[in-house]
Specification:
Number of domains: 2
Number of strands: 10
Helix content: 10-25%
Strand content: 15-25%
Strand order of the largest sheet: 1-8-10-9
Order of helices and strands: HHEEEEHEEEEEHE
Radius of gyration: 22 Å
Largest sheet: 4 strands, mixed
Shape: elongated
Structural class: alpha+beta
């Protein structure tokens, strides 16, 4: 079950807005209904529930609060040197230069603005997993954290605390009142497959990353809480 309200409301009004808080309350009521229904129907000791998100969100600045980055005003850069560009949404952009113009475009943008980071595809940090796919264009642009046009946004560097989602799990397969170190969201898929006795498709997750949090299907009802240490991350 996916709840789209918190994401769309956060984009429109900001993640800390009253509108977003009200939407989170609605989701909380839905979770409460699911858990009370499970208890009412005698499923508490048989049903595992995982509650998580696919990303975090942060408040961004606009309307004169930050200097705008206008590519067309950068000396030496021209959209005429591009076959295709994707720069109109989110904190990243990608450029496909015309044949023979990659270095010209790259050199014009590199270092042109203190809040604009420019990479050739092969230069992207490996931890971001954003340089090996054929669909990724030769030049990648990355705006600094919290610079964008919506009230709330995600897609920034995943080392920023606001980009980290949460994870909660309750049910007979999970240890009780356990708080663990953060783990990557990609590891949730193999965990779910393990709990459902499903053979997972090829993926980048690892069951070992979550092995400490579950105890098997025969245990009593347990609760897992994942937290993030801001001093470590």
């Amino acid at each position: 079950m996916k709840q789209l309200g918190p994401d769309s409301t956060g984009h429109k009004y900001g993640p800390d807005s009253p509108q977003r808080r009200e939407m989170v309350k609605q989701v909380d009521r839905t979770v409460g209904y699911l858990r009370s229904s499970a208890e009412r129907n005698g499923l508490t000791n048989h049903l595992n529930i995982i509650i998580t998100a696919d990303h975090g969100m942060t408040t961004i600045f606009r309307n004169g609060l930050v200097e705008e980055i206008t590519l067309s005003k950068i000396k030496g850069f021209s959209f005429q040197d591009l076959v295709f560009h994707l720069v109109d949404y989110g904190p990243t952009g990608m450029l496909l230069p015309k044949e023979g113009r990659l270095e010209k475009v790259y050199n014009a943008l590199k270092g042109a603005h203190p809040h604009l980071h420019v990479y050739k595809k092969e230069e992207m940090p490996s931890r971001l997993h954003f340089k090996n796919n054929d669909r990724i264009l030769p030049i990648i642009l990355w705006w600094d954290y919290a610079l964008q046009v919506n009230k709330g946004e995600h897609g920034f560097d995943n080392e920023n605390m606001d980009m980290k989602p949460f994870f909660r799990a309750v049910g007979p397969a999970f240890r009780k009142n356990l708080e663990v170190e953060p783990f990557e969201t990609v590891n949730i898929y193999p965990l779910m497959c393990h709990l459902l006795d499903i053979t997972p498709e090829p993926n980048d997750g690892h069951l070992d990353a979550t092995r400490a949090i579950h105890v098997g299907k025969a245990a009593s009802q347990d609760l897992l809480i994942q937290s993030c240490n801001p001093n470590k991350w």
